[in-house]
Amino acid sequence: MLDKAWKHLMKDGVGIMGMYGMGGVGKTTLLMQINNKFSEERCGFDFVIWVVVSKELHVEKIQDEIAQKVGLDGEKWEKKKKSQKTIDLYNFLKKKRFVLFLDDIWEKVDLTEIGVPFPAPENRCKVVFTTRKQGDSDPEIPKLAKDVARKCGGLPLALNVIGETMSCKKTVEEWRHAINVLTSYATEFSGMEDKILPLLKYSYDNLKGEDVKSCLLYCALFPEDDLISKKYLIDYLIGEVL
Length: 242
Ligand SMILES: Nc1ncnc2c1ncn2[C@@H]1O[C@H](COP(=O)(O)OP(=O)(O)OP(=O)(O)O)[C@@H](O)[C@H]1O
Ligand SMILES: [Mg+2]
What we know:
- The protein has three domains: 2-131, Rossmann fold, CATH 3.40.50.300; 145-206, no CATH class; 207-242, no CATH class.
- The protein has helices at residues 2-9, 27-41, 59-70, 75-79, 82-93, 111-114, 141-151, 156-166, 172-188, 197-205, 210-219, 230-239, and strands at residues 16-20, 47-52, 98-105, 126-131.
- The radius of gyration is 21 Å and the shape is globular.
- Strands 1-4-3-2 form a four-stranded parallel sheet, sandwiched between helices.
- It is built from twelve helices and four strands.
- Helix 8 packs parallel to helix 10.
- The structure holds adenosine-5'-triphosphate and magnesium ion.
- Residues 27-28, 103-104 line the site of magnesium ion.
């Protein structure tokens, strides 16, 4: 198993590797073995960083752990706000080649929010994570996923939105259905310039419940590129009895 995981991770095209399995199956143990292999061989990486994420996700805690491991911590670091930590980590890590181990993920971890540059063939960095969440799905889904991705026409916003929407779809039927709906929306909006509309509509239609949809629509009342304070937004929504 170690050999298989190692060989996959070391491929040039692999930036992120996830290991799924039920509790106690040996994910952390395998991750540690990979970590140890890096410690022995280094393989040209500047930093090998290990972070335990666990059930309660705290971005700042992850930032602090990474900072400590790369030597950015100290009195000055502790005084910084989360957003500054993000910038500092990013500026430091973008010049380094790192492998980041994230053990025991329960929900979405946003690398950008933490300040971790996205692993890409250009920076040759790697991120390896483990989770109990079920990742196994029908072997036909990757093919359908490529179809969906193609419909995004290389637009990052579309890829982000649809990626999030599709992340909970586990069956081939759901994926085929999504492709059909997206195709029909594309004809519906075919007179318009905006290629992203069908994807946004699909994502919107997939929101669970009318309340959640109203909450999203409410955000459209704010000016474009305006910062929306979570606290104020919640107050407004309470005021609207949403
Ligand atoms: N290949 C193996 N052979 C024998 N024992 C193993 C093996 N892999 C793991 N174990 C043992 O199984 C137990 C659980 O392993 P581990 O903590 O790695 O599981 P896990 O998948 O990370 O669980 P969790 O989801 O709860 O974090 C540990 O006691 C570990 O020593
Ligand atoms: Mg574990």
